[in-house]
Design brief:
Residues 36-48 have a biased composition (Low complexity). The protein is α/β, with parallel strands linked by helices. It has helices at residues 2-14, 23-26, 74-77, 90-107, 109-112, 132-145, 203-217, 229-240, 254-259, 272-288, 369-385, 400-404, 426-434, and strands at 57-60, 83-88, 119-126, 150-151, 154-155, 161-162, 174-178, 181-192, 221-226, 247-248, 264-269, 311-314, 319-322, 325-327, 357-363, 388-394, 415-418. The structure holds beta-D-glucopyranose.
Length: 435
């Protein structure tokens, strides 16, 4: 039910015809790969026979990449034959978020310009200026609204500080014609929401920022946009709910979806239910020595399989990407529980063919709303179904060593799932596995 609605929403809102370009390619990655041999270790402890450097490894949520240029870190993505990234299609998602905001403005033009000055002003909360997902969302919003300017051949995603007079150089004023009237669209302010200790995507910082912005130019703010729901909800609760200013986020966390009934403008589901499954399923398959796409593009014995329209696999990038779905007043009721597992992959694996294995998995920031309230609860449901004993490590969101220090004995584990603090830092993990 949920899936059908999601697909309808995706097709309708985005006009997309998604062909999972990679899943066929992915079938080529077959059982003859490395960690196949680790599958015969019985019981629930690491076999000790497989070198740490050959154990399955999944990067998730933060793709190994250069945080300045966005270039993928292919060394990390090819660490061994059973290394992959699991995330979502950041560009498609960023575009969907931008379109969602634009559609809302167009549909509500008669009431959106709160001070009637003909300028639709929005403020933007940026998560992490060095994170591909965050950059894609900033770009998607600016592209859709027409406020984007180019920098080095790409949409500039830099924060602008404040821009109440429209003079900022990283964005431009746009015009939008609706019902014979021309409106200006202006990015009034944007800021990376990083706290003083260095944690990014920081919800509390966003809550403070909206207070500061509102007290100096509050009546000019007609729309609030955020790179994620954690920050979006913080701004909504601090200011926009009371002032009836539509606020848009990303992630479809349960609290944000529920808030749509109270005026939250909308959010995007990055299909965390599919991503969490892929994160653990790839490890499972590698440990069992079966085709890496078992239970993904082809059904496993328990009947688990993903349809091609909810993810793509990019072989060159060694990356699985879930697709995004807009969640708005129109369809939010079917997204109320963000921790509900994906119905098509909800079947328990047989312990005789998929015996218990130990996985080390970290969440870079235990306080991150999306990862703690949506992603980890999903992982915890799937780990049971997949017979994986997962040790969850929670980081502080700012210190990589706080996490790597807890990977002191990789020999105790059969496989690893890593969520980095900084996307440049893959080597600080792989070096521990190579020793
Ligand atoms: C999510 C954010 C989250 C970030 C953490 C993004 O994909 O949308 O909510 O803070 O990942 O890396």
């Amino acid at each position: 039910m949920k899936k059908k609605l999601a697909l309808l929403a995706m097709a309708a809102v985005l006009g997309l015809s998604v062909t999972a370009c990679g899943s066929d390619d992915a079938k080529d990655d077959s059982a003859d790969k490395g960690a196949a041999d680790s599958g015969d270790a019985a019981g629930d402890s690491a076999s000790g026979e497989v070198a740490n450097k050959d154990k399955p490894l999944v990067w998730f949520n933060r793709q190994p990449s250069n945080s300045t240029t966005g270039e993928l870190d292919m060394t990390a993505l090819n660490f061994n034959e059973n290394t992959y990234y699991v995330g979502f299609d950041a560009t498609q998602g960023g575009d969907a978020q931008g379109e969602m905001v634009k559609d809302y403005i167009e549909a509500n033009i008669d009431k959106i310009d709160r001070n009637g000055d003909g300028v639709i002003g929005y403020v933007l909360a940026i998560g992490d200026i060095g994170h591909n997902d965050s950059i894609a969302r900033t770009r998607g919003v600016r592209n859709a609204l027409g406020t984007a300017v180019e920098k080095d051949g790409k949409t500039n995603s830099d924060p602008i500080g404040t821009n109440t007079d429209g003079s900022a150089s990283a964005v431009q004023d746009a015009t939008l014609e609706i019902g014979g009237k021309t409106y200006t669209i202006r990015e009034l302010a944007s800021q990376e929401m990083k706290n003083s200790a260095g944690a990014t995507w920081d919800a509390a910082t966003a809550g403070n920022a909206i207070g500061t912005w509102a007290s100096s130019f509050g009546d000019q703010i007609d729309v609030v946009v955020s790179n994620n729901d954690g920050m979006g909800m913080s701004m909504f609760n601090a200011w926009s709910k009371d002032n009836e200013v539509p606020t848009f986020g990303y992630d479809a966390n349960s609290d944000a979806v529920a808030a749509i009934a109270e005026g939250y403008g909308g959010t995007i589901s990055q299909h965390a239910d599919v991503q969490a499954y892929l994160t653990l399923r790839i490890l499972r398959n590698a440990l069992d020595g079966v085709d890496i796409n078992t239970g993904i593009s082809t059904a496993d014995e328990a009947g688990n399989v993903l349809s091609e329209d909810v993810y793509t696999y990019n072989e060159e990038q060694r990356s699985y990407y879930a697709m995004n779905v807009p969640v708005t007043a129109e369809n939010y009721e079917s997204f109320m529980d963000s921790t509900e597992i994906y119905a098509d992959v909800a079947n328990q694996l047989d312990e005789s063919t998929s015996p218990s294995k130990k996985v080390w998995l970290d969440i870079y920031n235990a306080a991150d709303n999306f990862l703690s309230s949506t992603y980890q609860p999903l992982l915890q449901k799937y780990d049971d179904l997949l017979n994986l004993e997962v040790e969850y490590i929670g980081g502080d969101g700012q210190t990589e060593s706080n996490i790597t220090n807890r990977l002191g004995n990789p020999g105790q584990y059969d496989a690893f799932a890593i969520n980095m603090v900084k996307t440049d830092n893959a080597a600080s993990y792989t070096s521990l596995l190579s020793q």
